[in-house]
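Homework help board

Subject: predicted structure for assignment chain

Our instructor gave us this sequence and asked us to write out the predicted structure in token form, then describe one feature. I got the tokens but I'm not sure how to describe them. Can anyone check?
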Amino acid sequence: MPRIVFHVDMDAFYVSVERRENPDLNGKPVIVGADPKSGTGRGVVMACSYEAREMGIRSGMPIGMAWRKVPTAVYLRPNYELYGAVSESVMNVLRSYADILEHVSIDEAFLDVTSKVRGFDDALEYAARVKAAVREREGLACTIGVAPNKSIAKIASDLAKPNGLQVVRPEEVVTFLDPLPVTKISGVGTKTAELLERVGVRTIGELAGFPGAELKKILGKNSVWLWGIARGLEELPVEERPDPKSISVERTFDRDVSEWTVVRETLRDVAHNVFLRARAQGATFRTIGIKIRFEGFQTHLRERTLASHVLDEEVLVNVTQELAQEFADRKRRVRLLGVRVTHLQRPKTKQPQ
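My token output:
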């Protein structure tokens, strides 16, 4: 019997939560991020509504650029504490419908529901019940992709947004995947797509038909998983992640950033996100690290181990800022920032059966 996997993705999560709190925002372009300060603000767009996306706004875009594009949008500072609380509630709902829940991020999860349903026809109705349960609990819409494996379920949910539901049955996998561009596969970015296009591979179907040995010459070890996904053969299990060895958050800028004040503010926001995740897990940490990637993909890692375990946002923010200061005088644009805490201690918990 084939597995039945759901990929659940909350629609424009930050914005949807803000609209739930303030219905006057419905239908308006909404941008969550730093203060735009009439186009002179530092920082980036954290999230935006579908209306704002239609106007050219994207997550990671400098907030000043966003304001210059759409000065009439509603600009909001992120309320991470509220988003975290809502996310926890949503995940509890999803867990009650799953054999196994894999919490991927604040707004998405995989569910293995194989034993909960009687085949893919039943899965359609079951997914609709999950959507209704999330809406009843938190008043929010989500999109669900249903498929025999995780990669296809994620592609299905991406195509069904917003507030959608798409089922891909085992016999429909090839027909579903073949015409799609290779960039629909999670993890295939512009660079990989360009390499594939040079050898005439633009669609997932063309990728599936490309000789595996030749693909390995082009993409190296990444070719194995990519080829498997293109052929619908990916079999990664949905698995609970109750005890990761680290907690990390990364943020990629829409455009490389040279203003160090933007870097510092963004790093502070990333550290805040890490703190909220650690607190939600009841985890203390002893080692704090940063990742900073410059244009040209030159990447540096720095970390510091503390004298004892802490769960302290001020300590986390201060250490990350101190670690980053080494790079402040470099005349290079920053592409990505990350914060990571390790050497965790946390209470032991098990997922309900």
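Reply (TA_rk): Your tokens look well-formed. For the description, you could write something like this. The chain has a mean pLDDT of 91. That's the kind of observation they're looking for.
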